[in-house]
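Quick note —
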Amino acid sequence: METARKITVEVPEELLHRAQQASGAGITQTVRTGLQLLAASQAYDRLLQLRGKVRFSRTLTELKADR
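Predicted structure written out below.
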Protein backbone atom coordinates (compact mmCIF):
# COMPACT_ATOMS: atom_id res chain seq x y z
CA MET A 1 0.00 0.00 0.00
CA GLU A 2 1.29 3.47 -0.91
CA THR A 3 1.89 5.97 1.81
CA ALA A 4 0.15 9.31 1.50
CA ARG A 5 1.06 12.76 2.71
CA LYS A 6 -1.45 15.24 3.96
CA ILE A 7 -0.70 18.70 2.61
CA THR A 8 -2.16 22.16 2.79
CA VAL A 9 -2.22 24.03 -0.49
CA GLU A 10 -3.36 27.53 -1.27
CA VAL A 11 -4.69 27.85 -4.80
CA PRO A 12 -6.69 30.54 -6.55
CA GLU A 13 -10.39 29.83 -6.07
CA GLU A 14 -11.19 30.26 -9.77
CA LEU A 15 -8.43 27.86 -10.80
CA LEU A 16 -9.71 25.21 -8.40
CA HIS A 17 -13.29 25.75 -9.58
CA ARG A 18 -12.30 25.36 -13.26
CA ALA A 19 -10.20 22.28 -12.50
CA GLN A 20 -13.06 20.68 -10.58
CA GLN A 21 -15.46 21.40 -13.43
CA ALA A 22 -13.03 19.84 -15.89
CA SER A 23 -12.46 16.74 -13.77
CA GLY A 24 -15.98 16.36 -12.46
CA ALA A 25 -14.47 15.33 -9.13
CA GLY A 26 -13.99 16.71 -5.66
CA ILE A 27 -11.05 18.71 -4.45
CA THR A 28 -8.83 15.80 -3.38
CA GLN A 29 -9.31 13.80 -6.56
CA THR A 30 -8.89 16.92 -8.70
CA VAL A 31 -5.54 17.70 -7.05
CA ARG A 32 -4.41 14.07 -7.41
CA THR A 33 -5.37 14.04 -11.08
CA GLY A 34 -3.48 17.29 -11.66
CA LEU A 35 -0.36 15.90 -10.00
CA GLN A 36 -0.60 12.69 -12.05
CA LEU A 37 -0.94 14.68 -15.28
CA LEU A 38 2.07 16.81 -14.38
CA ALA A 39 4.17 13.72 -13.68
CA ALA A 40 2.99 12.08 -16.92
CA SER A 41 3.86 15.18 -18.96
CA GLN A 42 7.44 15.02 -17.69
CA ALA A 43 7.69 11.36 -18.73
CA TYR A 44 6.22 12.24 -22.14
CA ASP A 45 8.82 15.00 -22.60
CA ARG A 46 11.60 12.49 -21.88
CA LEU A 47 10.13 10.11 -24.46
CA LEU A 48 10.02 12.88 -27.05
CA GLN A 49 13.74 13.44 -26.52
CA LEU A 50 14.30 9.84 -27.70
CA ARG A 51 12.47 10.44 -30.99
CA GLY A 52 14.62 9.21 -33.85
CA LYS A 53 17.24 7.75 -31.52
CA VAL A 54 15.75 4.31 -30.90
CA ARG A 55 15.79 1.52 -33.47
CA PHE A 56 13.29 -1.30 -33.26
CA SER A 57 13.99 -4.83 -34.39
CA ARG A 58 10.48 -5.26 -35.81
CA THR A 59 8.87 -3.32 -38.63
CA LEU A 60 5.56 -1.48 -38.34
CA THR A 61 3.96 -4.13 -40.57
CA GLU A 62 5.13 -6.91 -38.24
CA LEU A 63 3.79 -5.07 -35.21
CA LYS A 64 0.40 -4.58 -36.85
CA ALA A 65 0.23 -8.25 -37.87
CA ASP A 66 0.98 -9.31 -34.30
CA ARG A 67 -2.18 -7.66 -32.89
